[in-house]
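This section describes the prediction task in plain terms. A model, or a person checking by hand, is given the sequence of a single protein chain and must write out its three-dimensional structure as a string of tokens. No templates, partner chains or ligands are provided. The sample shown here is typical of the held-out split.
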Amino acid sequence: MELLRIDCLGKELRLEGSMAGWQQLFWGGTVVAVKHASADNQGPYTHTFELTTPVADEGEPNTINISLEIDLTWQPFSLSYRLLQEQNVLTEGSRNTKDIEQQVPVKTIEVKRKVSMVGLASLGFKLLKSAKVIKVVLAGASIAAYSWLFSFQFALALIACLVFHEYGHIKAMKHFGMKTKGIYLIPFMGGLAMSDEKINTRWQDVVISIMGPCFGLIMSVVALIAYWITGEAFFAGLAAFNALLNLFNLLPILPLDGGHILKSISFSMNSKAGLIACIAGAAIGVYLSYSLGLALLGFMLLIGSAEIVFEWKTRHQSHLLPLDRYGQIFSAAWYFLTVGALIAIIWYLAASGDEILALPLKILQS
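The expected answer:
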């Protein structure tokens, strides 16, 4: 994770680090100081190094002693720094979570590679993916696929729900200043919102992931209101199946939205007490799912939670800035309220007695 990037005597001084305590300091692309991983992963620390500058005559080169003093706190993130030449302060300042969210990582140097069939195929795929025509082709294939399963009218409405879901992701990406590449519809699998830029924090991961299902929830609520007003079963079916699609997106399994959300929450819990709380929360969710007869939901929640727990030890190796305590609680509440609202819509419509409207609930009970 890039913690700091400032100017130092005409060259870029960049500090990278991780929550494992590892830090590496670059000056003009050259490593000048290293702090190895340790339990002492935050607090005050000083990086010192020497710079050698040439002289006009044939005398001895000048040696300059440089120090970078930092005071780092991970949760909530804050970093204050002072750059000194000998005892003179060159620059000082501080950084917070907003600065990390908005920074653009340093691009790696591109290495020229020989032309190969694999390389040409990869280039062709990238060009195809970026072309607008592929979006139209995929949209047409999706309409055909859902028309085969349901009807043409219902397929169009379902595509609108999928686009609205993916637009939620796009809206969140733009909120964080990320450039987006648009929405791609994938037959039988939903859609995909794409961006060329990487996220820097767990909060960005949570917001971008959950905004899709939230927009999907809004779409189901609108369809449900339309059903109450008109009495048309078409709107009821749209509300139920759209709620089911968004609920599956919230399952805690990667690469689904729910997997990103719960992984960001659990990987931000750095103490064993946090891990125990995460396990207890997952156990309660599994128990409630089976108690309500939602066997499939409980099983998938169990599998996804186990996957996250097994990977918990690798959390410090991530480049993403973790959530603070408030962010963890808020994200968990946001997640479970969204899941609960989607289940409530499915349950309510299943009680109408219509076999088609009861199908989403039967799938969850299977």
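For orientation: Confidence is low (pLDDT under 50) at residues 108-115.
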